[in-house]
Design brief:
By secondary structure, this protein is an alpha+beta fold. The longest helix is centred in the last third of the chain and has 17 residues. The site of benzoic acid has 7 residues, from helix 2.
Length: 214
């Protein structure tokens, strides 16, 4: 059955380029981005894995751990890692799950048979520190993902979590945010939004991004 937003994500134990991983233990108190790709030694995947490695400091800053998956084995992954490092100019600084028995792919519904009977699609799962699923994305094999967008979603999720705001269409870091509709008490509004807010409509209230200095 599909895993839905808000569900506790299933745990698993699987081999990886960093040894055997018990997923929930490995995740610990971090946010996680778990992303699958179709196969080793493929062009789009090579660029994606390099891109995620280059973004490590951005993921660290947000308390996010990255973990990739494809259905090849550890030996194949390790040979491919050499290629990624050479062609993308970066050390691979996160594990790749070796899901040769497809147990994790099955658990997370990453194989879509009408797209490919054997390869995983480009799935993304963003999971919070309580192991709840907060976002899923599914891209076709031929389209590389935009990891800047994934960072933007993580920023939005963390603003909602810690500052009671949502983010409007095309929001980017520094733009005004939307006060969650459930917050109506004037004292709570004053305490949570000391920078003030504008009321466009009673249900649409904008406030400067709360976690910035000014
Ligand atoms: C890939 O790099 O994974 C890929 C590229 C083109 C079509 C399908 C997959």
């Amino acid at each position: 059955m599909a895993i839905r937003l808000g569900d506790t994500v299933p745990n698993f134990t699987q081999q990886s380029t960093e040894g055997e991983i018990n997923f929930h233990d490995w995740a610990g108190d971090s946010w996680v981005i778990l992303f699958s790709h179709p196969a080793d030694f493929t062009p789009v995947c090579t660029t994606e894995l390099g891109t995620v490695a280059r973004l490590k400091s951005e993921f660290d800053r947000r308390n996010v751990k990255a973990i990739a998956l494809s259905v090849d084995n550890v030996d194949s992954h390790n040979r491919w890692v050499g290629d990624i490092e050479e062609t993308q100019g970066v050390n691979l600084n996160y594990p790749i799950l070796a899901d040769a028995d497809r147990s994790v792919s099955g658990l997370y519904d990453m194989i879509h048979p009408e797209a490919s009977a054997t390869a995983t699609v480009r799935s993304v799962f963003i999971i919070d520190p309580k192991k709840k699923l907060r976002l899923t994305l599914t891209y076709p094999a031929s389209t590389g993902r935009n990891f800047d967008e994934i960072l933007r979603v993580i920023d939005s999720l963390q603003l909602t979590e810690h500052h009671s705001v949502a983010t409007p269409a095309n929001w980017k870091n520094g733009d005004d945010c939307v006060i969650l509709p459930g917050i109506q008490d004037p004292e709570e509004l004053a305490a949570k939004f000391p920078k003030g807010f504008s009321v466009v409509r009673p249900y649409l209230r904008l406030t400067p991004q709360p976690n910035l200095e000014n």
